[in-house]
Prior knowledge:
By secondary structure, this protein is an alpha+beta fold. It contains 12 helices and 34 strands.
Amino acid sequence: MQVMGLLFLVALSAGAQNLTGRITCDGRGVKDVVVSDGDEVTLTDREGYYALQSQKRNGYVFYTLPRGYEPELLAGFNPQFWAALRTPDLSATEVHDFRLKKVKNDSYNILIGADTHLAGRADDLEQFRSGFIPCLEKERVMGDGRQLYSMLLGDLTWDVYWTQNRFNLNDFMRTLREMNYDTMLWPVIGNHDNDPAVPPSSETDFLSSAPWRSIVCPNYYSFNLGRIHYVVLDDIFYKNEDTGGPYAQGVAGSRNYDGMITEEQFRWLEKDLALVKDKSAPVIIALHIPVTKLKGTDFSTVTDKLAKHSSIRLFDAVKAFQTVHVVSGHTHYNYTTHPKEYPNVTEHNIAAVCAVWWNSGIVSGRHNCRDGSPGGYSLWQVNGKKVKWQYHSMEENGETQMRVYDMNTVRDFYRTDAGMKALLQKYPDRMDYGQMPDNVVMANVFAYDDDWKIEFFENGSLLVAGRVTAEDPFHTLAYDLPAFRKNGSAGKNSMSNRTMHMFQAKAQTANAPVTVRVTDSFGQVYEHTIQRPHAYSLSMEDFEEKVYKIK
Length: 551
């Protein structure tokens, strides 16, 4: 009765706001916690009480997790930092309380993945259970006691299969519970997480995200882990336009969308960032569709072509911060960009957990993305204001950063294999490695950035090497060729694409071993040695790998 009386006085003194509550830790109020309904933003008072007048447009209220705390956790993974509103009635006052737990987490690891695309097809649930779920425990063990968090950057589900396969957002959350996903998860909405049954109208974008907002969490929000401020945005403007059909069951339109950030989010973002006092600490912005693109072979991008996505406005919003990292998915391949107009910004586009929609695992048993990166995720290590990242494969050699090819054997296969020749005939735009000159060695460096150093050695002698835009030969074996043999088509959106993290050198001989040495942004050194001739096969495991750990 005493607490309710205090809440009534808080609401009364604040002009009878219709959203009130208290945020506590061990029964004591927590001061200056940011609370929002996605439009209005307020702070808790010294007793932990908040009150705001909400239009209840989004149907939720959430708090921004403060430094040094964790939220209550449901089912081992689901942070309770938000609450669904009970009624849209503006005259009805709602009370939503939250409890925090005090922790020391200025140092921790966070696993950032993208595009799980769980849909009840292609044995995806089993591949996720046996391939991705064990990675959580592996990273926890390898973290030597550091707290582990996780983030998934959208397309957790696949909208067209919500009805067709009866696998929707509720089923995704149930699957995580059943598979004992035991790591705090901060989710991001993707285009395939919008409701395809919403017909096209001026309200389609807002209405199609309603299931996400009621089942998963707010579609945009922020939180602090240690000294890092994270902002999650919804950069899907879902249109679902009617192009005449026919459409699958449960689908009302073409499921199309634009990559853009709405005006409502920008207004909220301005208020959110204004409350971040330490401009020297990194800000990490998480969204689904990348906001930058590589231009040719240039890792500095031009943003004028991307105004439709609102990237210029987004980067202007964070220009006061020294270091800003954008993490995105959507493409199912790896690249990193440094917008030359915004030197404080780096975007990390992270390859997919599902690789090519779990299909390569079905046709070849190897989990591989279109750019040749193994299906996987990025592991970030945070120490105060310092962050490091490393791409990790879901396959056995998780920290492998490259794959190296003896192009003599690749060339021989392209020249002699009947299926390969038929595939090239059907797809004449594909790279024909049958035309490769003698003694070329090629390396795919999955998460390459333009400050990395790539060196090739033959018998200890440094070779002249360069970066090339090329297809990864392994993805051809892991997906293109077996899919083509099975179906007569490799599928436009799943076939190998040309990537800019390929490197090659011309060796002096056809049979001397070649070592590729990669030094990343943090001085970490990886060496990968192949004995030549080196087999071009799905296993490609006959190599020596050394990692020189930074002391």
